[in-house]
Amino acid sequence: MSSRPPDLDLVHPFQTPPGPGEAIEVAPGIRWARLPLPFRLDHVNVYLIDDDGGVAILDTGIDDRACRGAWAKLFAGPLAGQRITRLIVTHCHPDHVGLAQWLVDRTGLTLEMSETEYLTALVIHLDPEALEAEPYRDFYESNGLDEETTQSVMTRGHRYLKMLSGLPKTFRRVIASERLRIGGRDFTVMTGGGHSPEQIMLHLADENVFLSADQVLPRISPNVAVLPRDPEGDPLGIFLRSLREVRKRLPEDSLVLPGHDLPFTGLHKRVDAMLDHHEDRCAILVEACRREPHCAAELIPKIFHRALDAHQTGFAFGETLAHVNYLARRGRLHRVETKDGIRRFAAT
User: Which of 33, 174, 298, 308 could cross-link with 294 by S-S, CB 3.0 to 4.6 Å?
Assistant: First the structure.
């Protein structure tokens, strides 16, 4: 589940997204296509980059019938007769890597990802039932989710993670600061964490174009969640550091090509709004815990104000706990002992 900072007066040079089977040129040699998703966030952007007589693909979409059908329209339309030269995936979430094996089988290419993202996606693919293991149940219940909600999150809520066509047994590792030569141009690799562990972003400095994946989105903040396998992790701290690094390195007037929603300019303004948004959420949680100790599950409605299904509850729980862990690491919250063993926190 994403969260939504205040709307900003960003400039959107392309107001209408591409329809099914369409691709819009958004920068010289870079086309934008959109694939359907079966969620509240109902689409993912992919980019087609001209590459010496062929096309490099950035991201794949999720593995379901609608997304495969959208690719079929692209191959019959804008990609008809064109050689696919590279397959680059920004991160491990199924809406970005879900059709990796399907596209590798179709093109014969080597998948290109950062190592951490590839291995994370591989673990999910090889052992999806581990998501329902007993230690993970304790992760939810010890942070205050009731038994019924925990069961719902661990089954229905995690179903989307299994929407992968598979992953190839080998890949090419993409590394931060590396330059990818695509179509006679150098794209500098940047990586960011928090939303996922080592997400790939591409910066075309000579043309002031930034393919930001999910790290910087124009209207929502990506889900930044604590995961059961790292229950005391600090993804929010990592995410905020990554945002500050993007702001420091890239110009305000960069053309940002995001993983969702519309391309935009106004990068610094957008990053500042996201930083402020998460600080506002932290302040809300500290104030709630100043009145009385709370666990993460009790704090969810303090920052998520609408009814949540199992899929959304899992995201909201992980993101709330990310703020709690962030505040605890920085001494703004501290854990208090409770008779029921639930992890509750009070303001320091």
Answer: 298
